[in-house]
Structures are given as structure tokens and as C-alpha cells.
């Protein structure tokens, strides 16, 4: 009798184990199917976001290029005396007035444009209009006084714009707005669009004689990247710096670290070893111990950033 009970108990345990294994397999398979469906849905959403961002950036680039191709802009630069010559820095009055009026009209028509500047080949601002900053009214763009015009030759976007060539536009990194080297709070991200003004010389060669630079508020662009329920969507630059993150304290780690000396917060810090997997050719999904990461490269001007969705 005792032996029979042992046999029955053993058989019961085996059946229970098999049933639990089957239930676990069904649960795991269902979870994997749901995760797979969510991955496809999030990948489609990232494609949609990337297309929207790309279209918006291209619009800003095209309008900057159009400004740099204005004949009056070329006329202003052609008439600006070189440093050390009589009248150095003074553009031809009539052409300058038309260019300044055109810049003001564009700034008024595009509230996200913070300012437009025309620079000569040495990086000196010839004329500029601006909303906010340097005493300007944020709601109303106005010409920048001559005494407030500055040298921009050391700016990354100046070198990039001059090297880009005729009919092209260089887009700077998106960075927090800073005044006198200090980040302004609340953080307001900006990007600079720069397109060279070229003059044709012998043999049809185009030589850059200056550029048009537009400072654009990037808040509208970054707000188009959002996190659906149950997920986290991030925009990460090539260094792993967060431009968009559900927790805003994670953003702008490099800039804040450089200014305050605090440790830099980056994607690589949160997900060690996963960046290389995500940036590998053809890779758009990465499984970690904590989550599934779905990603998509996104070009903003001259840089390839990465949209990442954590499921």
C-alpha cells in the first residue's frame, strides 16, 4: 500500500510538473509574441518620428540656403571693406537695409528663429537681427546694434558652414542656450544652421566669401519625440549624450558636466556595452537583462543621432 502511494504521488508530481512547464511555456510564448508585436509597433513609431524630424530640419536648411542665395546678401559682402581699410566693417547702406529687412521679416514669420546673422569670410558679423539676448525683446526681433556685433570665427558652425560649399547647409549640434558661457535655466536647446555665400571666380570655381547663420530654437523639434504608455523614448547623440529622455534630469549630461564638474550621465553609463550593439550595421533591436531596446538612426543635418525606445 505504501509503495502504491509513492507511485501515485510520484506520478501526480510528474503530471503537475509537466502542467506547470506547459503553462510556463505558454506564458513565455505569449509574452514573446506580445513583446514582438510591441517591438514592431515601436519601430514603426520611431520611423514616423524620424521622418517628421528629418522633414522639419530639411525645411530649415532649405530656407537658410535660400537666404544665403539672396543677391543683396552677396552685394553686402562684396562692399564690406577688409579689416584695417577705411570704412572697415561698414556694409553698403541700401543693400544692408534690404537684407536687414528680409532677416526681420523671416524672424517675425518664424517664431522659432531666434536670430539671423550675416558674417564675412573672417567670421565677423556684418549685420544681424535677434530676438532676446543682448537686451532684445524675446517677442520682437530687432537689428543688433553695431557695437554689439561680435566675432564668430571660433564657432564650430562657422567653420562647418564655410566648408560646406554653395547650396549646402551645415547644422550644428543641438546644445542648451548659454549666455556668457553659462547655461540658462530652464534649459532652452538651440541649433545653428549655416549656409555659405559663394562668389564665382575664374574657371567657374566657387569661393565662400561669408555665410548666413540662423539660430533656431530646437524645443519644437525635440518635443515631437515622445514616449507612448509603458515605454521610454530617448534621443541620443553619437557621444551617448541624451537630448531627449522621459526624465529631463538625464539630458545634456556633457554640457552640464563641463560646466559644473558633475559626473556625465550618458547612455553608455546606463546601458554598458549596448551602444556598440545598437550602432552595429543593420542592428535595430537589443535585448538587455532589464529591457528590450528598439532603435533607429536619425540624421539631423550633418550628424547621425539615434532614437531609442525602451520597452
How would you sum up this structure, described in words?
The chain is about 40% helix and about 25% strand. The protein starts with a helix and ends with a strand. The longest helix is centred in the N-terminal third of the chain and has 67 residues, at about 1-70. With about 300 residues, the chain is an alpha+beta fold. Helix 2 (about 70-80) packs across helix 3.
List strands and helices in order, with pairings:
Elements: H1 2-68, H2 71-79, H3 93-109, E1 113-120, E2 125-130, E3 142-143, H4 156-164, E4 170-171, E5 175-176, E6 178-179, E7 182-183, E8 189-200, E9 206-217, H5 219-222, E10 232-236, E11 242-244, H6 253-260, H7 267-270, H8 274-279, E12 285-287, E13 292-300, E14 303-310
Antiparallel strand pairs: 1-2, 1-9, 2-3, 4-8, 5-8, 6-7, 8-9, 10-11, 10-14, 12-13, 13-14
Summarize the structure.
This protein has about 300 residues and is an alpha+beta fold.
Structural descriptors:
single chain; 311 residues; alpha+beta; five-stranded antiparallel β-sheet; 8 helices; elongated
Cα gyration radius (Å): 28 Å
- Listing every helix as H and every strand as E from the N terminus to the C terminus, the arrangement reads HHHEEEHEEEEEEHEEHHHEEE
Largest β sheet strand count, sense and barrel closure: 7 strands, antiparallel
Strand content: 15-25%
The rough form would be described as: elongated
What share of residues is helical?
Answer: 25-40%
Structural class: alpha+beta
Mean pLDDT: 80
Could you tell me the number of beta strands?
A: 14
Distance between the termini: 55 Å
Total number of helices: 8
pLDDT < 50 stretches:
81-89
Amino acid at each position: 500500500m505504501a509503495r502504491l502511494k509513492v507511485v501515485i504521488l510520484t506520478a501526480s508530481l510528474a503530471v503537475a510538473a509537466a502542467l506547470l512547464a506547459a503553462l510556463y511555456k505558454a506564458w513565455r510564448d505569449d509574452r514573446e509574441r506580445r513583446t514582438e508585436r510591441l517591438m514592431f509597433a515601436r519601430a514603426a513609431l520611431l520611423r514616423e518620428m524620424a521622418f517628421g524630424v528629418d522633414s522639419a530640419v530639411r525645411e530649415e536648411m532649405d530656407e537658410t540656403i535660400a537666404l544665403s542665395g539672396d543677391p543683396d546678401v552677396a552685394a553686402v559682402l562684396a562692399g564690406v571693406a577688409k579689416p584695417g581699410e577705411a570704412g572697415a566693417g561698414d556694409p553698403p547702406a541700401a543693400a544692408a537695409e534690404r537684407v536687414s529687412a528680409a532677416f526681420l521679416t523671416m524672424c517675425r514669420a518664424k517664431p522659432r528663429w531666434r536670430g539671423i546673422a550675416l558674417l564675412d569670410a573672417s567670421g565677423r558679423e556684418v549685420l544681424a537681427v535677434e530676438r532676446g539676448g543682448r537686451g532684445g525683446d524675446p517677442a520682437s526681433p530687432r537689428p543688433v546694434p553695431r557695437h554689439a556685433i561680435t566675432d564668430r570665427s571660433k564657432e564650430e558652425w562657422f567653420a562647418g558652414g564655410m566648408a560646406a560649399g554653395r547650396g549646402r547647409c551645415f547644422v550644428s549640434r543641438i546644445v542648451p542656450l548659454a549666455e556668457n558661457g553659462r547655461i540658462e535655466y530652464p534649459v532652452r536647446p538651440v541649433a545653428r544652421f549655416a549656409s555659405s555665400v559663394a562668389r564665382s571666380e575664374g574657371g567657374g570655381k566657387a569661393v565662400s566669401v561669408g555665410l548666413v547663420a540662423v539660430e533656431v530654437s530646437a524645443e519644437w523639434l525635440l518635443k515631437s519625440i515622445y514616449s507612448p504608455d509603458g515605454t521610454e523614448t530617448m534621443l541620443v547623440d553619437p557621444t551617448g549624450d541624451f537630448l531627449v529622455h522621459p526624465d529631463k534630469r538625464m539630458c545634456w549630461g556633457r554640457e552640464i558636466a563641463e560646466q559644473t564638474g558633475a559626473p556625465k550621465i550618458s547612455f553608455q553609463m546606463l546601458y554598458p556595452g549596448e551602444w556598440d550593439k545598437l550602432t552595429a550595421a543593420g542592428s535595430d533591436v537589443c535585448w538587455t537583462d532589464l529591457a528590450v531596446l528598439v532603435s533607429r538612426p536619425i540624421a539631423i543635418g550633418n550628424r547621425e543621432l539615434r532614437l531609442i525606445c525602451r520597452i
